[in-house]
Each structure stands twice: as C-alpha cells, then as structure tokens.
Amino acid sequence: MPLAHVLALVLAAAPPDLAALGIVLSPRIEGRAALLRSGGRTRVVGVGDAAFGGRIAAIAADRVTVDFDGVPVEVRLMTVTASVSAAPAPAASADAVPRTMERREIERRLGEESGRILAETTLVPAMDGGRVAGFTITRMPDSTLLTDAGLKPGDVLTQVNGVPIDSLATLIGLWPRMQTESAVRAVVLRNGQPVSLSVTLR
Fold first, then answer.
1. 186 in helix, strand or coil?
2. Among 54, 138, 158, 162, which residue's beta carbon has the most beta carbons within 10 A?
3. Is 160 helix (H, G, I), strand (E, B) or coil?
4. DSSP state at residue 155
5. pLDDT recorded at residue 78
6. At a CB cut-off of 8 Å and minimum separation 6, what does 91 contact?
7. Could you give the CA distance from residue 29 to residue 32 in angstroms, rounded to a whole number?
8. Which of 58, 71, 75, 74 is nearest to 10 (CA)?
9. What are the angstrom distances between the C-alpha of 161 and each of 65, 83, 164, 196, 198?
10. What CA–CA distance (Å, rounded) separates 136 from 80?
11. 4 pLDDT exceeds 50?
12. Strand partners for 58
C-alpha cells in the first residue's frame, strides 16, 4: 500500500477536532500532562495513555504528539487571544457574594464531582501580549463546587490568592497550597470587568 494512502487512512482515524487545551511540563516525562479535547469530551492524559483512538507519544511545551497506528500526529497547543490588559480593581457584584464552605463537605464533594469537573470543564489560555494572562472557562458543569464558588462559563480566571494564573502548571500547583488556606480568593474577568470571588473555608 502506498505511503500516501496509509497516511490518509491514519489521518482519517485522527479526530478532525482534536485540540490541545493545556500542557503541564515536568523534567520527568512521566510527570508531563496534557488537556485534550475532541467530540465535546475533555481528557487529562500523560505519555503512553490511550486517547481519542491514538496513544500519547510525547508532550512538549507547545504540542502533543499522538500516535495513530504508527503515524505521529502533532496537535498544537490551542490559544485564544483575549483582552486581559490592566483593568480597574476587582468589584463585588450581586452574583459574587462571599461564601463559606465546610472543608469536610468540600472534600466529600470533590470525591463525588472531580470526574465530572475534569470531563466537562474546558479551559482556554487567555493571551495578552504573547503571554498567558489567565484561563477562560469556556465550559463547565452545573451544580458543582465550581458554580457554588461563584464561577461561571465565560469567566477569565486571572488570579487565585494573589498568584497570577500564567500557566496550567501554576493553576494545578496551587492545589497543595489550598489545603492549608483559610480562604480562597479569585479574581475573574466577567464581561470584561474584574470581579472578586471569595470562599471562606471552615
């Protein structure tokens, strides 16, 4: 069978809408992860994992290589340009009232909801002058900890507890720190305006 025909068959097997939404790099290959989306489904994958009909061969800073029957297909990191330039100080709005949550309840709900949150939440880098200045929540499930914390689809998450969200690695790296915090404060851009969200943990 001619090589061109083989390539055409493999590329036909690769989902046409396969996209890389985020990448977490690590010096160790087994520590690298990518957020891939296709057919309305989102998966977090590592090197060697099967996903969307192929197997993850490599994860680099700007691309994920997926092997489809011996033929590597490069999926470039998707970026969206968003205006996240300097804005006035975050404002409180009617839908951004401070909330209080019990730690035990959060842990219980995370155990129940984490699979749904990972599968149904889509984050897209918001770029400002060629750098990541936050992540746009383009899709998220209803009635989860995310919505209870005040987040909405369309929000651009720019800061958590004073830390600028400049990469997916930064966002994921905040999780261990949140275990000992007494409050979580986030700044999001909502309809172009900064809004402060606050959850006190008891």
1. strand
2. 54
3. strand
4. -
5. 67
6. 193, 194, 195, 196
7. 5
8. 71
9. 34, 22, 9, 11, 9
10. 9
11. no
12. 65
Mean pLDDT (the chain, rounded): 80
Structure tokens at 185: 């404060």
Half-sphere exposure of 151 (CA within 13 A, CB side): 30
Q: Which two tokens stand for residue 33?
A: 């992860």
pLDDT tens-digit profile of 38-77?
887 878 888 999 999 999 999 987 889 999 888 898 998 7
Amino acid (one-letter) located at 114? S
CB contact burial 42-51 (16+ within 10 A = b; e otherwise):
bbbbbbeeeb
Report CA 50 to chain centroid distance, whole Å: 19
Residue bearing tokens 């992540």: 135
Using the structure block, give the residue that is written with the tokens 């129940």: 112
Cα–Cα dist 172/89, whole Å: 25
Here the tokens at position 179 are 């275990």
pTM for the model stands at 0.57
Cβ contact 93:195 at 8 Å: yes
